[in-house]
Write a structure and sequence with these properties.
Number of strands: 3
Number of helices: 4
Order of helices and strands: HHEEHEH
CATH architecture: 2-Layer Sandwich
Oligomer: single chain
CATH topology: GMP Synthetase, Chain A, domain 3
Largest sheet: 3 strands, mixed
Helix content: 40-55%
Strand content: 15-25%
């Protein structure tokens, strides 16, 4: 049992409880800033952006923020705009979250929904090719 616990605590593939907690705090804070429409970049203005996940580096100095604009449109342009606004967002988050050190924000387009759609389309195609009904 000792051996298993050692690897589960120090395995870089699995985030620590602290990383998970801080990631959730940052996710909620970034979402609040987006809800208040405080970012005035023309590329972001008027767009609904969902923060799907925040992954913290082991030292809690970098927060990788996974975002997806509503409908998945212009995700590259939105991520570039968010990267430009990262210093502003970091300051705004500092007013919401009580952390000793604020992490650097790095924005990434969340591809999980696109991947799920591709997998769903492939499964429908396989069902159709095998003579099964397409379903909903």
């Amino acid at each position: 049992m000792e051996h298993f616990e050692y690897y589960s605590r120090h395995d870089p593939k699995h985030p620590s409880q602290r990383q998970l907690r801080v990631g959730e705090l940052i996710r909620h804070a970034v979402s609040q800033v987006f809800e208040r429409d405080e970012v005035h970049d023309p590329e972001i203005a008027g767009k609904s952006i969902t923060v799907t996940e925040v992954r913290m580096s082991p030292d809690l100095k970098i927060a990788t923020v996974y975002v997806m604009p509503l409908g998945g449109e212009d995700d590259v342009a939105v991520v570039e705009a968010l990267d430009r606004a990262a210093p502003f967002l970091r300051r705004r988050i500092g007013g919401i979250v009580a952390l000793k050190f604020l992490p650097k924000l790095k924005f990434v387009a969340d591809e999980t929904f696109n991947q799920a759609s591709r997998i769903d389309a492939l499964l429908r195609e396989v069902r159709r090719d095998n003579g099964g009904d397409d379903g909903p």
